[in-house]
Amino acid sequence: MRSSLRLGAALAFALVLGPVSLFAQPSLLPKSGEVGEWTLTAAPERYVKESLYGYINGGAELYLPYGFENLEVGHFSRTPGTPSREIAVEIYRMASPLGAFGIFSVQREGDEQSAAALPNPNWTLPGQAAFVKGSYFVTVQGVPADDEGVRAMAMAIARRIEPGRDIFSDSFLNVLPAEGRKSGSERYIKGEPAARNETQFFSLPYWGFAEETTAVSARYGSDGIKLLIVDLPTQPPSLDSSVREQFESNLEGTRISEGTISARNSAGHWFLFARRGRRAFFVFGKTNEAEALEVLRRAFGDSTSEDGAARPAD
Hints:
- Residues 1-24 form the signal peptide.
- Keywords: Signal.
- The protein is α+β, with helices and mostly antiparallel strands.
- The protein has two domains: 3-159, 3-Layer(aba) Sandwich (Protein Transport Mog1p, Chain A); 172-302, Protein Transport Mog1p, Chain A, CATH 3.40.1000.
- It is built from eight helices and 14 strands.
- It has helices spanning 3-17, 49-55, 60-63, 97-105, 147-159, 192-198, 239-250, 289-302, and strands at residues 38-40, 45-48, 68-78, 85-94, 122-125, 128-133, 136-143, 187-190, 214-220, 225-231, 252-257, 260-264, 270-276, 279-285.
- Strand 13 (270-276) and strand 14 (279-285) form a beta hairpin.
- The longest helix has 15 residues, at 3-17.
- The radius of gyration is 21 Å and the shape is elongated.
- It starts with a helix and ends in a 12-residue tail after the last helix.
- 39% of the residues are buried.
């Protein structure tokens, strides 16, 4: 789910609504003329939790679980120029660096390019860029595509934001095994909309994503095997049997061996599930069972302490 479609719809909606809510936070948008010949076309638009629904029609539910605090939107134009060119900027302030990374991560596919000049993590597409720095998630889009202008605008905004802590060193993300992990594929999943987008198996309420359950995911190997690690606030006694029922209803050849539930779909993709205390593990993708089990084995090793107890999530 890339942000371009969502961003385009949201910007069109914002042109009708205009500014909704003001907040005391200083603007992070460059001033007119600060980035080449790009000039602000109107006063910045600012949104808080209550007004976000008016800006992202139907999409606010994705942002709020990640700790959305406020949003600043700016529209820039460049003159002279034929045809006219515009750049739209969205600056989301979240409650934490992990929340900013989370909302960034679930809006990328994992195969986008990145730019060394922008803060890490970031992704770039023709005429678009997005990055995370500190507690901010920033998107920049040119219409029509203007890679040079978008990059310059993104760099100017990044310079205005204070750096944050390393989210991989002291967060739930560090349970993802480093060996074989595809860089840029990592996701932090929080809230029901993000969970449903990740896999249909998270669509049922017993997972608890509407409450405190969170998950991380990444892809491994040349075939992009998906690993998901779920942190559960409690140890639901019926989780294993519920997952087995899901497998039996949607997949083929479901069986249990040494505490691991496995099955395949009609395309031959393997699906594995296991649980260790408050941690649940999914592995699935176009692979063979042995490779899937190896990814699962690595996940067990990286997500448990020396005594075998599940590590607490942040």
